[in-house]
Design a protein that fits this description.
Helix 4 packs parallel to helix 6. This protein has a six-stranded parallel beta sheet with strand order 3-2-1-4-5-6. The longest helix has 13 residues. The C terminus is likely disordered. It has a single domain, classed as Rossmann fold. The chain is globular. By secondary structure, it is an alpha/beta fold.
Amino acid sequence: MNWLRPPGPVARGLRIGLLGGSFNPAHAGHLYVSEIALKRLSLDYVWWLVAGQNPLKSASDMASADKRLVGARALVGRRPRLIVSDLEKTLGTRYTIDTLKALRRRFPEVQFIWLMGTDNLAQFHRWKRWTEIAALMPIAVIVRPGSVLAQLNAKAMQRFARQTRLRKPPAIASVDGRRNEASATAIRSGVRSKGSA
């Protein structure tokens, strides 16, 4: 593993949310997930982990990693508690489980919480070693429009349904707030959804 410089402040006791994804492109829905998590989970920061290439997504309509990183940073702008990073590129990791293990080893003093929208929860069981991700750190699932019912059918929620307080993993909790309908898929196809920026 390459030596990893933290993308933002790290200190014992800090609570940092990790929001991974393609960010193809970054949009208001990503901001929504981050801001709800900051408020509802009392996080100090949210790190956006811009993936090189999501193994579950086609590369054919994927913008370059550099372009997606620039777009994410432009969207975040001057929000000091949101930090955009290409940590996976630095680490040389491709799968979430490998990235999260590396972050836990490198920053053991930080309390990390994995963040995802309900749109990703529906296919979370397809991720490489998904049960290890759930065992590694708490997971907060932010309710997104169009996937509100995903929690009812998601294998992860069925498996860890009793663990809902985000303390010792495995723990998956659903977090709700005023919803934002922005979608990267809709943006790429030229459809403007409510709440998109």
